[in-house]
Fold:
Amino acid sequence: MKNIFYFGLEPLKARYTYQLSKEWMPATFAPYEELGELNYIDIPGEFDPNQQIKVGAVLDAVGRGKFAMSQCSNFLDLLNTDQVKSGDVIFLQDYWHPGIESILYALDLYGIDIKIYAMLHAQSVDEYDFTWPMRSWMRGFELGLDKRMAGIFVGSTIHRDQLRAAGFESTIHVLSLPLHKELTLAKLPGYHEFNSDYVKQNKIVFSSRLDKEKNPFFMMEVAEQFLFENPDYVWHVTTSGNSFKSMIPGVVDAMYELSERQPRFKLLSNLTKEEYYTELATAKIQFNSSLQDYVSWTILESTAFGCDVVFPNFRSFPEFIPADRLYKSFDMDSAVTLLNEVCTYIAPRKYDFADISDLGRRMEAYIIAMDVTEEINVWHEKKYCQHLINEYFELKKVN
Structure:
């Protein structure tokens, strides 16, 4: 039986990383463990559970490095005590994993042949990503690790194509983001669209980070005009952090200034997951203004809780969002017009984004367990992916 050594992200409860690393991924591999196909081993790391982002985007820059390198140290201890063998697998939850070169070095000297898989969330291949200015030194790391990969998981086809253009050669599977829909909905016990506790209100929610690639100044411009035209609506900006932060100077001050002159523009910080999901369950529309986003957790979670969406016609979004929910990029009038139009509908449209992403999550485990080398695209091959997984477990029942 092969071991799957899982290198998760810092399990911060204020971020999606706790659910992903401590709930969703263990549940994803559990069926294969039960069948005796693999042994799932979570590689721990050292971190402060109360860590706030001092400098960084998704996670704190220092905290990310310390956590990843401590995971590498713990794995090297396993290697040193002969608990790693050829045929085992390393699964990196993020391709950017400081310290991974120490593992590759040791494995080569030990003569142990293992497969490495990783979720690649962004990296320096997109001009709007915060790592783009780092590409002069980062690209060498990216392409070097690519030489050792058995498979890379990405969210969207355009991201795969950007990686190819940058020189990536390994197998790339397009699987959306690994949402566990059932466990996500379970955060709100009793949630369903007809529960009176979760009646849709005249509310727009914006849940993206306030960094450059999320275009927050444009969001504020749209929000102010929309609220002026719609006096019966509110606009909520949310964060799980203790306070709003941004790598863009002045953006947080600008938000508070807008909230003072427009009281229906509300800033909600320090939200628990349950509080955030309640926001989504009671909102009509999730608005997005991103310049760079490969699918986006915001659209998966919000549509799972019944939100309609208004997103820019840019980057990965046209691959899966209907054209009549996309506004012209960088055009405030187009965004406001589309928001006004969607607000007139009696009920939000239902989407299958969360279901497809849930399927993509399960495909990650299938690909790793079955050593799949054929490239998979869950957005374009939904039925095929369902067939592969169903066939596998049906055969196991028979045998």
Notes: Residues 56 and 206 are 20 Å apart (CA to CA). The mean pLDDT is 92. The chain is about 40% helix and 15% strand. The domain at 2-179+355-398 is CATH 3.40.50.2000 (Rossmann fold).
